[in-house]
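In response to reviewer comment 3 from the previous cycle, which asked for concrete evidence that the modeling workflow produces usable outputs, we include below a single protein chain processed end to end. The sequence was submitted unchanged, and the resulting structure tokens are shown without manual editing.
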Amino acid sequence: IGGFGPVKKSDEDEDDSENEKPPSHVEPALFNISEEGDSLRVTQVANAPFQRSMLHDSACYILDVGSELYVWIGSACSNSERLFSVIYGEQFLVESNRPMIIPITRVIQGAETPLFKAQFMNWDDYLTHLQPREIVGYENDITDSNDSILIWRIQNNSRVDQPRQEYGIFYSGNSYVILSKIDRTLVYYWLGRDSSSEDKQAALVQTKDISDDTKSYIRVLEGTEPASFLNLFHGKIIYKMGYYQESKSEQGDKPLLFHIKGTSQNDMRAVEVKCSAKNLNSADCFVLITPTMDYLWFGTDSEELKQFSLPCVNFIRDIHKSNLEQILEIEEGKEPEQFWAILGGKANYLNFAELKHNIKLPRLFCCTNATGSLEVVEIFNWSQSDLMIDEIYILDLYSCVFVWIGAEAKEREKNVAHETAQKYVEYASKIDGRTINTTKTFCINQSVIEPELFTRWFRGFQSISLPSSDNDACDAYTLSISSLRNSQRDHPVISTRSIDVKSMLSQFNNTSNTNLNKESSITIIIPYEDLKIKRFPNGGRGMDLSRLENYLSDVEFVKLFKMTKIQFQQLKEWKKTELKKNLGLF
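The workflow returned the following structure tokens.
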């Protein structure tokens, strides 16, 4: 290193605190950038809120949100603009006297990240007016033939060929393997929400049997399908309830209701839901298949879906061998009585004003203190399976914000999460134009039924409610949540409706510090038979596996240990261990 030299003392070191954090007072702005001779020409386009229509294909833009810099490259930009895009960002920081520590993200048109799209209003609405080839980006795997696609269903740990006419149909109780040879070989293994763990494991084994290239494997969970997967089916994809063979034999002449969603012709999909009016919502369209008449119901806010839904609708009718020549199109509010009769009568469904006001993409954040301090981490391409029972989540719908509290979350986490949600709204109001007074923040508990405005953003959301009469077999998790709801029916905090966070914070702040430091007295109840074979809800995450006896009900505990839980706690440790070993709970 050039020999011995003087070493500065710590107190002589330069103060670089100015560069440690990017300034938070910068007002978000969008700039158009271009080369002008040897210099960079920067022209401000707009301040927040931003519209997707401000970005033009032939231009290059810088989106400055204060803590981060995005450089957006249009599809018609020159090669030099693509090559020097990051350098443009660095020059922008220098010329605006900003710290070089600010991260710069390069964004290509058609492959925008969720964080980038979240800065714009009505991003999805804009996409629905574009041709499919303009929005697919790097995931353009569309083909006009099924010859390059092979699909197998997992059955008895083996692959069973899926009939060609049923390509695009997936049952929630099954797992599938899809081989795509378009452009390059990719092997998807699709795991249904209700598929058994054995089938899921077999799907991975069969995937490895098809290809030795691990880079070609793509794991797809129901509800989180990537665009490349959806594009394989030309907007003709159906997710059905139940199991393949079971559904075939039991369907009969029962009416079927399908929920259709999507933003373009190539990502349209239909999800089978229970045939009930409460499953409708004003933002989407639905297909009702009956032996005598087929109905296509359009919500008042589903105008964009009309031009893209027809291929998916026809696919549904073809699959169910509808012999009817026409389908009756119905606008919301003009339904015939027969329509409601098929659905079991009129019922309240999701038609809140928030659906119209929700003009930005929803965002989901997880609040966890697993590292000792509260962390708020954004989750992308999420589904209901991402909601863990021992965590707290924030769902931002722009017009309102939900705080979802898992059944096993700690009291201190709840308190911090409420405050974090309030601060989140305050910070977001400085960026995207929302106001603190008009953005409502609600708290909902997992131990109650989540409101429709929350569940609407989780495709195929299944609320953990009391066991239904037609489903005798319920897992331990369902039973424990049901037990919680029964025991907390009169609890002042738990309600079947969402609770305003401000009043919730007031209640928590009035609680003594002693109570805040205690773990939640509410715990899930797990039957002994499940504990003995280590069948835990959520894979055991959030549970104290060294004290499984605590998850027994009081009645079952006394029956097994011949004493109460209080008497058990007074025993010596060696005696507790001996009793637990005898019962297989150690």
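The chain has a mean pLDDT of 75. We consider this sufficient to address the reviewer's concern, and the full set will be provided in the supplementary archive.
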